[in-house]
Structures are given as structure tokens and as C-alpha cells.
Amino acid sequence: VPVLLSTRDHGILSPVHPTIADFNYMIVMVTSGNQKIFLDATEPELAVGLVPMRCLNGKGISIVPGLPDEIEIRNPASASFTSVFLEMKDGKFSGKLSVRNTGLSAFNFRQDLKKEGSEKDHFEKFKEKAEGVEFLNFSYLNIDSLNLPVERKYDITLPNQDSESTVIYI
């Protein structure tokens, strides 16, 4: 079913009586059981069921012949989970850092990766920005599997740690 909406830049729909001038974008809604799945074909790295941030502007109108209906446009929850496993040897911390991105968070990471050109280029820029952590190796998983979370794994060390004066909060 086509759904007409207004993007964030275009403004919200008139709550009383939207006119054709209020709309500037269209997505598709598929209903599976009680679940509404939104589809947008303009972003190749966007997972099924997500719409771009520019489309999240409240409501849209489904265009069903004879039965137009107001539809709330929202994405499933997005998240970023980070875990760190550290080990201390000879007064130096080393270990693994893992980051798992879902939903629009995964989409945004894929977009950043695309802008950088390659995984290695992205990793090099990421390393440059890091303070107090030395990133040794990396792996990015599920970059091309759009409906799976993006997983980033890094081998890290924390240089210049004085084990006598370091406080660790857990």
C-alpha cells in the first residue's frame, strides 16, 4: 500500500485537513498479520522495515482506494551495544572491544563506511580519533547483510597505564 508523507524538511502534515501540498514523499507499507512493515527504495544500505530519518515526521496517509487512513510512521528501536574485555599483564591492559549496531544505528555506520571508501580507511580514521586506547586490529561483520546487526570487533591496548595508581570502574 502506498503511504504519502511529509519529510522533516518539508514540515508536518496539517492535523485538521492535510492537502496534497503537504506531501512530498512516498513509501510503501506491507502488512503481515498485525505488523506494518515500511519500505523505502531510496537508500541501498537501509534494512527492510526501516525508513530514513528524514521520513520520521509523525504520520502519513495510506492510499487505499476508497479508504485513506492515517498511519504513524516509526522505525523499530535502534541500538548500539558496546562490550569491553580487558586483561592486565605486566601492568598493561589489553583485550577486545566489541560494538553491535542495530536499526538506524547500523544504517548510519554503513553510510559512514561508504563515505570513507573502505573498511581499512574507516579503521584508520577511527584510530586517529581515539584517545587513551590503541587499536591494533579490527573486523567488521555483516556489512552487506542489511537485515543483520553490524558488528565491529577490535583488539586494543591501554598504553601508559600505571597499575599502582589506576582506578578501574566497573
**In this structure, how is the largest beta sheet organized?**
5 strands, antiparallel
How widely separated are the two ends? 49 Å
> How many beta strands in the DSSP annotation?
9
User: With helices defined by DSSP (H or I, 4 residues minimum), what is the helix count?
Assistant: 2
Taken as a percent bin, the fraction of beta residues is 35-45%
Q: In order across it, which strands form the biggest sheet?
A: 3-2-1-4-5
**Class of secondary structure makeup:** mainly beta
Dominant shape: elongated
Q: How much helicity do the residues have?
A: 10-25%
Q: What kind of oligomer do you see? A: single chain
Low-confidence stretches: none
Tell me, rounded to a whole number, the average pLDDT: 89
Radius of gyration: 22 Å
Order of helices and strands, N to C?
Answer: EEEEEEEHHEE
What does this structure look like?
The chain is mainly beta and 170 residues long. Helices cover 15% and strands 38% of the residues. The chain is built from two helices and nine strands, in the order βββββββααββ. The strands form two sheets. Strands 3-2-1-4-5 form a five-stranded antiparallel beta sheet, with no helix packed on it. Strands 6-7-9-8 form a four-stranded antiparallel beta sheet.
Give the topology, please.
Blueprint lengths: L1 E4 L19 E8 L2 E5 L19 E4 L6 E4 L6 E11 L2 E11 H14 L2 H11 L4 E8 L8 E9 L12
Antiparallel strand pairs: 1-2, 1-4, 2-3, 4-5, 6-7, 7-9, 8-9
